[in-house]
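User: Continuing from earlier, I have the next pair ready.

Assistant: Great, send them over.

User: Here they are, in order.

Assistant: Folding the first of the pair now:
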Amino acid sequence: MSDISNDVIARAAKGDMAAFEDIYRSTSPFVYNVALRITNNRDDADEVTQDVFVKVHRNLRGFGFRSSLKTWIYRITANTAINYCKCRARHVCGRLEYDPALHDREAPRAESRQFDKEEFMEAVEPLIDALDPDQRACIVLREIEGLDYRAIADTLHININTVRSRLRRARERLLAMGRKGR
């Protein structure tokens, strides 16, 4: 995501649609990627991305420059995606889709071949998708987006100790799922 000047942000907050389009063009790929990593579904990520930019447009006047625009949009994206997943889970009645073939495959040895990023994400996405939305958001923001604990806490508006515990539980669950697959 490229840096967006405070002038562009201020103009967009005052209703300048060209300035808002600049913000959209600069941030939409990263918003979509974060939404996709949390929802693990392209259609849901599209929906979340649309919701995020509606919220950004409505709330840009209240931005206030207390954090960077990137952090603010991360927060909106993560929270929107988490809420979307929770709402969707309620409609599915907690039914989890289970693919036994995922557990019957033996994972390739790390030294036997290199994964490219796309192959890595294909292998990891089913595991990440099994996490609850709060844990998934923390793992995505930490391990995929590379945010530090403080940035995750600021983004999700949670205590840093909550970030630590969610990441610990998520990692423990991922390890347990990995062990079951062996």
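And the other member of the pair:
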Amino acid sequence: MHSILILNGPNLNLLGTRQPEIYGRTTLADIEEMCRTYARAIDVEVAFDQSNHEGDLVDALHAARGTHHGVILNAGAYTHTSIALMDAIKSVDLPVIELHLSNIHARESFRHHSYVSPVAIGLICGFGARGYTLAMDALVSHLEKDT
């Protein structure tokens, strides 16, 4: 059975109330429950972590090595600023899918650059909370082609 870490970055703990016109009204707890339900349906294990602190996200990526088979990462604003996250992804040798609730390419120009994309196996953005289950499918498909 594959194990997936779903790692969320800064401000995602405020989902449901933070800019609902962009991010929707679904809370992070709602997303986690949706992912747990979906994980049972596709027979994978799923774990969750969220932090507003860059170093904690780096630590979570390091800890995922040897524990999980892959990571779904919504790095929030750190996507556009964190070389440390990029280096951590390169260091852990795990497939990572970059995820965003909104379409970052249809937003402010500073959101168009990602330090995560060059080291991720793929990017899912613009599908709201549904992006998490899409990312789960994509990651499982990637893992199964490697087995």
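Worth noting for the second one:
The beta strands are 3-8, 45-50, 70-74, 96-100, 122-125. The chain has a mean pLDDT of 94.
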